[in-house]
Each structure stands twice: as C-alpha cells, then as structure tokens.
TrEMBL record:
Record has Hydrolase as a keyword: yes
Molecular function as annotated in GO: dipeptidase activity; para-aminobenzoyl-glutamate hydrolase activity
Peptidase M20 dimerisation domain segment(s): 204-290
One of the GO BP terms on file: folic acid catabolic process
Superkingdom as given in the UniProt entry: Bacteria
Keywords tagged on the record: Hydrolase
Protein name, entry field: Amidohydrolase
Record keyword Hydrolase present: yes
One GO cellular component term noted in the UniProt record for this chain: cytoplasm
Alphabetized PANTHER family for the sequence: PEPTIDASE M20 (PTHR30575), XAA-ARG DIPEPTIDASE (PTHR30575:SF0)
C-alpha cells in the first residue's frame, strides 16, 4: 500500500508536459521562417532611426504600433521615461517578460554593407551596438506564439519591453524599483552577438554606478582679477587627478572612466560651474559601493581645495550579471535544433573585409579562431571561474529579481571593437536579418517549452532562490527619489534628428535599406 501511495503522490506532483509541444515548436519555427521579410523591414527601420538613449521616440512609436495592431495592450511612459513602455497580452501564469535594448551610440552613423567608414550623417548617432535588432526578433516570436496560445487556449501572459538608454544603464533598475516585474515568472532577454548562444551563472562582467559631480564656485576675469575667482574647473581637474592616483590602490577588476561634461564657457572667464561624469565599475555590489563612496570623498576634497561646492547625481546603474541555469539549458536545446544561419559568399566576404579593415584579433577571448562569420555553434557556458572584469549591462538588475537569460544571436561580425561605427556595418544587411530570424525561432521554441512544461520555471526559481540569491541579496543604488536621467542626449538629438529624418527607411518604395541608400552588397573597397 505504501509503495502504491508513493506512486500516486508522484503522479499527482509530476509536471504534465503537453505532448503537442514539439509539434507546436516545429510549427512556430516554420512560421517565423516565412516571416523573414518582416524581420528585415523591422530591423532596417529601427536602424534608420538612429536614436540615442531616452530619445527613442520613433522606435517606440513604430514598434508599439506593430504590437498594438497584433492585439497587445500598450502602457507608455513607464517609470518616468517617455520612451519606455510595456506591451502585454494573455492572462494567467506563466507570466513571461521579453526584452531587448533599443538605443544607439554617439557618433556611430554608418552606411550598412560597406567595409570602410562611410557615415550616413557625419558625426550623428548610429547603431554601433546593434540594438536595432533585438526587439524585432522578440516581436516575431511573440506574435507567432500568441497565435498558438489563442488557438490551443494555452494560459499565460507575454510582456514585451524595451531596454531604454542601455548605453547609459539608465532604465532597468528603475523598472524594478517601480514594480513592473513584480508578477513576472521569468524573463528572456536578447542581445546581438556573433553566434547563437546562451550561458548561465556568473557572467564575469562588472556592475557599475554612473554619477556626475557638479562643482560651483565664482567667476572673474581670467586675466584681470583671477584671484577673485573660485574655479569650478580647477575642482574638476583636481578630482580627476585624485581619482587617477586612487586607481593604483584599487583591485585589478575595477574599470573607471570619465568625461568632462562642463569645462566652462570661454578661456577669459574663470568657470563658475564645471562638471565631470564618472562610471565606477567593479565585480560586486560592495566594491562598486566602495568606489562610489571614494569618488564622493575625492570630489569633496577637490571642492575643499578650491573653495567651491559640489553636488552629485546618479545617472545610471547596473549590477554584475548572473543568469538562470534551468532556462538556459532549455533554451540551448532549441539553439541546437535551430542552428546557425546559412551564410552566403557575400556575407562571408563582408565579414572578412570588415575584420581586416578593423584589425580584428586572430582569436576570441576563448581561443576560437576569428575568420569570417561563425559556422559552428557556441557551447552552453556555465559560470566563469575567474574574471578580470569588463563591461556592464543593466539587464543584471532584472536578473537578480526574476529568473533571466540572455540569448545572443548572430547578427554581427566577430572581432569588431564594440561601441563603434564598425559594429554598425552588418546591422542592416542580410547578416543581421538572418541572425534575427534564427534568434526569433529559438525564443519562440523556448516560449512553447515554458508555457507547456511547468518544471522549467519551477526549476528556474529553485536555482534563483537556492543558488543565485542564497548568499548575495540584491540592493539597488536607485532610491525612491532617484529620477531617471531623461535629460541626457537632448541637445545631440535636437541637432541630428532633422538630418537623420531624410534617411528614414521607406519600405513602401524600397525592398531594403541597402537599396534605399544605393549600396551594392557587399561593397568591400572604397572607390578613390
């Protein structure tokens, strides 16, 4: 009787996996393949907008219109950010969030498909990070999965959302603070890469705080009576000197860098106001906080030496990344099913020309050769064993609150420098379009798994609670009164938006953005 009872209990508690799930995955993969043209149009359109963080107005209007037309309910202006939104559909559990970044890079304007520097608008912003591709990928996935959910009456809620101002790490900690993820069961995030891959555990990157220090003194004639001035610029320079001496006594995992955002108006007037903007990066919350505190102390010291005053304001923040094992393992099985795109001779020719032009290394950081586009899938990577630190992404703030993975999809060229016009070359070409389709199929198949197999999300929360957050608890740098820095990039976009509008993609007239720009794909050498 006892053994029979145990069998009955196990039968009652064992998650029920829908036997039709594999058929639905094949169906949705085939459907997304048939929508390659939609992927191309969306990717090219967002590429042409070229909008910096907090000013992704055209991007937001365009993408939410598509979602609204497909039955999603839009909530705009979330977390105090005019270009932030959510698009939700469905009801009940599981509640799955789908996100990707949308902003671009300053001075990265670049014509796609040409293997040399050729800006669309000189000195304008451009998609030199590839953020024009992630949300089009997710929109295709969500629309096709929604069709199956409606037809089969599958419970669940899908919520799409943009990573606004990711280059400023300026939104996701605010999304968490304001409760937009409080009911979410799991999050799938996507980011452009050069292979189709996912990983779990400690990602090896740094978290950060982004903070501006604003000094104020008093002005005077720089030649006539400089002794009557209190130079705010002197305070900025002294702070920078102090911080640069401090670097010697920081861990080798730190990264810190700054730009002077206000250095005065003209040389003959001693600056009464000046400001400097810092990123303080480290591997743990405690070390980031220590750098932040040191920065404040050094700023106060510089103010004391110059008899000026100083204030500071937080502009952005991100935690170090840590991602979910259970969801990553489920996703990797679908990666293996979908596989890499079939690259054409032209695709590979452009990739190799860009690698040569940009001085790409012969191997990546894992020792894999860099020679054209990837033709072999990445493996499923677990936690890094050692890291010297590096970049940051505020998706980590989501991941420390909700089980999250990041799908990397192959829409860019291996070996590029990052945050550069070079990284924009592929982002409105067949390379980007094919990579988005492959990524979209992977996400859609993973969504079917999560909607039909409750064990995936149950295991995801077990990992999240018992491994990821067992000893490390999330503490935000953003308090209740910290406003998002929506004023950033305003002047740049006011200058360049009118110039960029002349180059917005018109899919009613042109089959591709390459065609609209009159580019022969690929163009490997500049005509002299």
């Amino acid at each position: 009787m006892l053994s029979l009872f145990c069998v009955q209990v196990l039968a009652q508690t064992k998650p029920i996996v829908n036997p039709k799930a594999e058929l639905w995955k094949k169906e949705v993969i085939k459907a997304i393949d048939s929508r390659a043209k939609d992927a191309q149009v969306m990717v090219d359109m967002v590429f042409s907008f070229s909008e910096l963080g907090f000013h992704e107005t055209e991007t937001a209007a365009y993408l939410t219109k598509i979602l609204e037309e497909n039955g999603f309910t839009i909530q705009r202006g979330i977390a105090g950010m005019p270009t932030a939104w959510t698009a939700s559909w469905g009801n009940g559990k599981p509640f799955i969030a789908l996100g990707s970044d949308v902003d671009c890079i300053p001075k990265a304007s670049q014509k796609p498909g040409v293997a040399f520097k050729s800006p669309i608008v000189e000195d304008a912003p451009g998609h030199g990070e590839g953020h024009n591709s992630g949300l089009p990928l997710l929109i295709l996935s969500a629309i096709e999965v929604k069709k199956i959910m409606e037809r089969e009456k599958l419970p669940g809620t899908l919520m799409l959302w943009p990573g606004v101002a990711e280059e400023l790490v300026g939104s996701k900690a605010w999304y968490i603070r304001d409760g937009y993820f409080k009911n979410v069961d799991a999050c799938i995030f996507t980011h452009v890469g050069n292979n189709l891959g996912v990983s779990w555990g400690d990602a090896g990157n740094n978290g950060l705080v982004s903070v501006e220090f604003m000094f104020e003194g008093s002005a005077a004639h720089a030649a006539g009576a400089p002794w009557r001035a209190k130079s705010a610029l002197d305070a900025v320079e002294l702070m920078n000197i102090g911080w640069n001496y401090k670097r010697e006594h920081l861990k080798p995992t730190q990264r810190s860098h700054y730009v002077v955002t206000d250095g005065g108006d003209q040389p003959n007037v001693v600056p009464s106001k000046a400001a400097v903007w810092y990123y303080f990066r480290e591997r743990t919350y405690e070390d980031i906080k220590a750098m932040y505190d040191d920065g404040i102390r050094i700023a106060n010291g510089a103010a004391m030496m110059t008899n000026t005053t100083v204030k500071h304001r937080l502009l952005g923040t991100a935690w170090p990344g840590h991602f979910n094992k259970a969801i990553a393992e489920a996703m990797y099985k679908n990666i293996q099913t979908v596989g890499l795109p079939t690259w054409s001779t032209d695709d590979q020719a452009l990739a190799r020309a860009v690698q040569k032009m940009s001085g790409a290394p012969k191997k990546d950081f894992r020792g894999n050769p860099i020679d054209g586009l990837a033709v072999k899938l990445d493996t499923l990577y677990g936690p890094v064993q050692f890291s010297m630190g590096g970049g940051s992404d505020d998706i980590a703030d989501i991941a420390w609150n909700v089980p999250t993975v990041v799908l990397r999809f192959p829409s860019n060229i291996p070996g590029t420098p990052g945050h550069s016009w070079v990284d924009g070359i592929a982002m409105a070409t067949p390379i980007a379009h094919k990579g988005v389709v492959a990524g979209s199929k992977t996400v859609a198949a993973t969504l079917i798994d999560m909607l039909t197999n409750p064990k995936i999300i149950a295991d995801a929360w077990t990992y999240h609670n018992n491994v990821q957050t067992k000893d490390v608890k999330y503490k935000s740098f953003v308090d209740a009164d910290t406003r998002p820095a929506v004023f950033l990039n305003t002047e740049i976009m006011q200058l360049f938006r009118p110039k960029l509008k002349a180059f917005y993609y018109d899919p009613s007239k042109y089959n591709s953005y390459l065609e609209q720009l009159g580019i022969t794909y690929p163009t490997l050498e500049e005509k002299k």
